[in-house]
Design brief:
The chain has helices spanning 6-36, 42-55, 60-77, 80-96, 100-116, 120-136, 140-157, 165-186, 190-207, 210-226, 230-247, 250-266, 270-287, 290-307, 310-323, 330-347, 350-364, 373-485, 493-516, 519-524, 526-537, 557-578, 616-626, and strands spanning 543-550, 582-590, 593-600, 629-635, 641-648. The chain is mainly α and 669 residues long. It has a domain at 520-648: Heat Shock Protein 90 (2-Layer Sandwich). It has a 5-stranded mixed sheet with strand order 1-2-3-5-4. It is globular, with a radius of gyration of 33 Å.
């Protein structure tokens, strides 16, 4: 009996699937059309949200349409939660497509409206996805900071009886799972990655969260393989496959087949591995998930290369590379380039192999392992040798006629060039050295002058504060005392009004004196002082939110006071010019670095009027430079301002066992 040709078999299998998929797409289009025709209310918003979430792994275009409609409807209703959800869904679609700049902008907008809706879980979700963006662009430190902030919010929500514990555990498992990716891919710390994956696994099993457990175990299987624990990885891969089959979801099935197939590949069971990985790629394509497609393609390419099917390997990898977004996913591109270089090298195309190897260095030179150095050197040597042989064959006749004369001229030219180069380099180095010395002296003088000016200002503030507190406030108290002891008619309206005005004046003087020299800063440090200041200046027209990350630490008084004044000035500028309704201040203390982030939702820097008084940006930057710090300002016109300040605190820590002379007299209330 003759067997059916493989391509004919594929035709009979995939044509019905294609026709079924077309029918399903038409049904989904009809469902979206029906939702769009509904009356604009919160019920429509909720239904659009559910549809957009359902379609995000099936049809991204439909998901984007639904998310845009969700955002527009919520804006018309002024429904903050719906607006935030719309922005976050659109951001996630851009994130999966590798459009990191657009995704980051949308997540920042979503966070603003999640805060208005008082939805901390939504804020944590956005912070976690922002961490994914930082990872994709190689900013590991910022990724860890964002992830820690998200985890802190989620762990706090677990203590709230009003929050859905299952949803919070799901979000927390996602953050731990992604933490593992950060440590494995960016920091190359597999032990730390394994710790976070185990935490995520325990949470998923506790919450019976099959969907996230599939992702966690998929990453766990890959990590165990990288750590040389192939048999343990195979057992995990089997469990992933069984769990994914139970979901009947192509997105999860792609993970199950890939995890199990890759484990088989590492154990050299190549035929079985290829079968599983082909199924993984098929499911990933149906799910239309770029990440799943890449993982399945990469694993399948490795298995096919082990069988010597290099032409198919090249075709698979080229298709995968074209599917990766242009502005991101550098790790994926780097892995593809490495395997393409290996495949072309095996086929004897050394030029193409060398080109892809150069691309590999350009994309991620830092992750190339020393164990591959001999392969790289062999490819490069063969390609360079072939190029040189070609050039030598073309020039052989000319070199034979004038070899001696050309050699003599070449040597003379080289010697002359070397002498001239040495003279020039020596002259240039001397000039640069003198210029650097001059710049250093000028900067040192500027810093000394600025520090003296700052010290003078603080002394004057302290003097004025003391005069107000001890002088004017005392006089007002004396006036009230004399007024109380006078023989005037106390029941009269004028007397009552006078005493009220005296109380208000006394409170205002006391408040002004404390702002000039805040007692809470002297006693408790920056965290408590900034928290109280932000609370005091918040009003109905401008809400100022304050966050603190890290461990509380005290520093020398002059440094704390300078940072406090700088934050005061920036917040005053927001009050005066930004027309903002919300501002956020975040203080972070990590080892020997203190950072402050201040952002608002105002009109942006370009529309602010020129400042005629106050520090001004240049003066502010000079002050920050004098404190061994730096400041970055970013703004979108009409979209608010984000200021990021960073200071080195090395050598500025206060010895807690000794009382420090702050060079200021403390005020008493």
């Amino acid at each position: 009996m003759k067997s059916i040709h493989p391509y004919l078999l594929q035709f009979f299998v995939f044509v019905p699937i294609f026709l079924f998929a077309q029918t399903a797409v038409r049904a989904q289009d009809d469902e979206l059309t029906k939702l769009l025709s509904l009356k604009d209310d919160t019920i429509k918003v909720q239904q659009l949200s559910a549809f957009a979430k359902k379609m995000v792994h099936q049809d991204k275009d439909l998901s984007r349409q639904a998310s845009s409609a969700l955002l527009k409807t919520s804006q018309g209703l002024q429904y903050a939660k719906g607006i935030a959800t719309g922005y976050s869904y659109l951001a996630f679609i851009d994130l999966e497509a590798g459009k990191h700049a657009s995704a980051a902008n949308l997540y920042n907008k979503a966070i603003i409206f999640y805060r208005q809706a008082k939805d901390d879980r939504g804020i944590a979700k956005c912070l976690g996805n922002m961490a994914d963006i930082y990872e994709s662009t190689g900013q590991g430190d910022r990724a860890v900071d964002a992830r820690l902030a998200a985890v802190a919010i989620l762990e706090k929500l677990l203590q709230s009886s009003s929050a859905s514990r299952k949803d919070i555990l799901h979000s927390l498992a996602i953050q731990y799972n992604n933490f593992a990716g950060t440590y494995s891919d960016l920091f190359l710390n597999n032990a730390k990655a394994l710790t976070y994956l185990r935490k995520a696994e325990n949470i998923c099993r506790q919450a019976k969260d099959t969907s996230e457990l599939v992702d966690v175990l998929n990453n766990l299987s890959d990590l165990l393989t990288a750590m040389g624990k192939e048999n343990e990885a195979l057992n995990v891969g089997k469990e992933v496959l069984e769990l994914s089959k139970a979901t009947k979801d192509n997105f999860h099935l792609a993970a199950g087949y890939q995890s199990y197939g890759y484990a088989l590949y590492t154990l050299d069971r190549i035929d079985s591995a290829v079968l599983m990985l082909r199924k993984a790629l098929q499911c990933a394509n149906v799910a239309n998930s770029d990440y799943r497609i890449f993982k399945a393609t990469h694993s399948l390419a490795l298995a096919l290369a082990r069988k010597g099917e290099y032409k198919e390997v090249i075709q698979l990898l080229e298709n995968a590379y074209n599917g990766v977004a242009e502005d991101g996913a550098l790790k994926y591109k780097s892995d593809i380039e490495e395997e393409l270089a290996n495949a072309y090298f095996k086929t004897g195309d050394y030029k193409a192999a060398y080109q892809h190897l150069e691309n590999r260095f350009r994309l991620k030179d830092s992750v190339i392992q020393l164990a591959n150095n001999h392969i790289i050197a062999e490819k490069e040597t063969k390609y360079q040798t072939a190029q040189k042989e070609k050039e030598l064959a073309q020039k052989e006749l000319l070199l034979q006629k004038s070899r001696q004369q050309a050699l003599l001229g070449l040597v003379s030219s080289i010697v002359a060039l070397l002498v001239a180069t040495l003279i020039y380099v020596q002259y240039r180095n001397k000039r640069r050295f003198h210029e650097s010395q001059l710049r250093a002296l000028q900067q040192e003088k500027e810093i000394q002058l600025l520090q003296a000016l700052m010290q003078g200002e603080e002394k004057e503030r302290s003097r004025i504060a003391k005069d107000l507190h001890d002088g004017v406030a005392g006089m007002l108290a004396a006036v009230k005392m004399h007024l109380s002891s006078s023989g005037g008619e106390r029941a009269s309206a004028g007397y009552t009004k006078a005493t009220e005005l005296l109380d208000e004046a006394t409170a205002e003087v006391r408040k002004t004196s404390h702002n000039l020299m805040p007692e809470v800063l002297l006693q408790h440090g920056l965290d408590r002082a900034l928290q109280r200041y932000c609370t005091n200046i918040s009003s109905t027209s401008l809400q100022v939110h304050y966050f603190f990350i890290g461990e509380e630490q005290r520093f020398v008084g002059s440094f704390e006071l300078s940072v406090y004044r700088i934050v005061q000035e920036l917040l005053n500028n927001i009050f005066k010019h930004s027309k903002a309704t919300e501002a956020t201040v975040q203080l972070s203390i990590q080892e020997t670095v203190l950072s402050v982030s201040i952002e608002d939702n105002g009109i942006g820097l370009t529309k602010q009027p020129a400042q005629s008084s106050g520090m001004g940006l240049e003066s502010l930057k000079r002050r920050i430079s004098a404190l061994n710090g730096n400041m970055e300002l970013s703004t979108d016109e009409g979209g608010g301002v984000n200021a990021y300040l960073e200071f080195s605190t090395e050598g500025l820590e206060r010895d807690s066992s000794k009382a420090e002379d702050l060079s200021h007299e403390r005020l008493t209330t």
